[in-house]
Amino acid sequence: MVALTVGCTGQTDTGQKTVLKVLIAGSLTSPMEKVEAKFEADHKNVDVQLEPAGSKECVNKITQLGTEADVLASADYTLIPSMMMPDYADWYILFAKNEMVLTYSDKSKYASIVNENNWYKILNKPDVIWAFSNPNLDPCGYRTPMTIQLAEFAYNDDKILEDLITSKSKITVAEVDGIYTITTPEDLAPDTSKITIRNKSVELVSMVQEGGIDYAWEYISVAVQNNLKYVRLPASINLSDVDYASTYDKVQVKTSDGKTQKATPVVYGITVPKNAPNAALANEFVKYVIDENGQQIFTADGQPPVVPAKANDKTKLPQILQQYVADN
C-alpha cells in the first residue's frame, strides 16, 4: 500500500482505523506485504502502510526529515546502530538474510552463456547494458561495487572494478594497507550507454524483464520473487556467508554523506523507533515478522530468516518480543 503522510505524525484515521507506518527496504516489499495482510486480518482496526525505499533513505526520513514511523526495517542492519542509535532507537533485531546475485532474462544479451566464471567479462562487452541501485541511498547499491571488488580477489584479476565501474563513472577506489575503500560521490555520473542507476534495486526488475537493460544486481530473494534468471556467485563474493567475513572486511564504501559502510554478510535489521506514534502495535507487528509464521513467509519468498532471530541486546527488547529472540 502507498503510504500517506498526514500532518507531522504520519498518523491519521482511515474510517476508524489506526495507521501503522512501516518504512522498509525495497527488497522486503514482497514478504512484508504478506505480513501486512496477516496483521490486518487479525487487527481489523489497523491500516498498515508500507513505505519501501532504499534503506539509507528510510533511515534518513527518521533522522533528518523528522518522519515519525512506527517500524523501520533495513536491508543492512548496521545502519541502525550507526545512524539511529542512541537518539532514535534503543534496540534492533536481526531477522533475515540474503545474497547478491546478477539477474537477467531470456532477452538479455549472452543469456545462454553467462555463468559464475564469465559474468564480469559479459558485463564488459560493449553491447551490454547493466544496472545497479544508487549506493548513496540503497544497501544493494553499495554492495554492488563491494561484490565487484571482491571478485578481483576471487578471479585474480585486478581490472574488474576499473573495467566495470571506475572507468565508467565518478566512483573511485583506493587501497591502503590491504583495505579497499570505494568512494561514491553524490554525482555518480555513470556512462549511461553502459550503466543504469536507479534509487532502489527493485526498480530495476521491470527493466530487466522488459529487456531495457541486460543485467542488474539484486538480492537473490528479489530474483526468486520476480522469476528472474540469475547468476549465483561464489560465497567469497556474494556477501552471504559469515565464514568469509574476514574476506569481506577488506572492502568498504564511503558514501556521499561521508559515512563508511564495511562489506559484511547481508543481514536485515528491524526496530521500533523511540518516537513511534503507535509503539505497542509496532512491537506486535515486529512479532509477526519474526515469529514462526513470519519465518515461513520469508522462507517461501526466497529470503532465509534468521532462526531464531537475534538482538543487539535482548534486555532492551519489549516483553512481547523476548520469547522469539535468541539469548545474548
Q: How do you describe this structure in short?
A:
With 328 residues, the protein is of the alpha/beta class.
Low-confidence stretches: 1-14
Task: Briefly note the CATH topology name of the largest domain.
Answer: D-Maltodextrin-Binding Protein, domain 2
Largest sheet, in brief, is: 7 strands, mixed
The CATH superfamily of the largest domain turns out to be Periplasmic binding protein-like II
* Beta fraction: 15-25%
Q: How many separate helices?
A: 12
- Count of the separate structural domains: 2
Amino-to-carboxy terminus distance: 35 Å
What integer is the average pLDDT?
Answer: 94
Q: Into which percent range does the helicity of residues fall?
A: 25-40%
Beta-strand segment tally: 16
Characterize the overall form: globular
Q: Please identify the top-level CATH class of the largest domain.
A: Alpha Beta
SSE pattern: EEHEHEHEEHEHHEEEHEHEHEEEHHEH
Radius of gyration: 20 Å
The structural class is alpha/beta
CATH-level-2 architecture of the largest domain: 3-Layer(aba) Sandwich
What features would you highlight for this structure?
D-Maltodextrin-Binding Protein, domain 2; disordered N terminus; 328 residues; five-stranded mixed β-sheet; seven-stranded mixed β-sheet; globular; 2 domains; 12 helices; alpha/beta
Helix-strand blueprint:
Layout: E1 13-14, E2 17-25, H1 29-42, E3 46-53, H2 55-63, E4 71-74, H3 79-83, E5 93-97, E6 100-104, H4 119-123, E7 130-133, H5 139-155, H6 160-164, E8 172-176, E9 179-183, E10 195-198, H7 205-210, E11 215-219, H8 220-225, E12 229-232, H9 245-248, E13 251-254, E14 260-262, E15 267-271, H10 279-290, H11 292-300, E16 305-311, H12 319-322
Parallel strand pairs: 2-3, 2-4, 7-10, 7-11, 9-13
Antiparallel strand pairs: 1-2, 4-15, 5-15, 5-16, 6-11, 6-12, 8-9, 13-14
Helix pairs in contact: 10-11
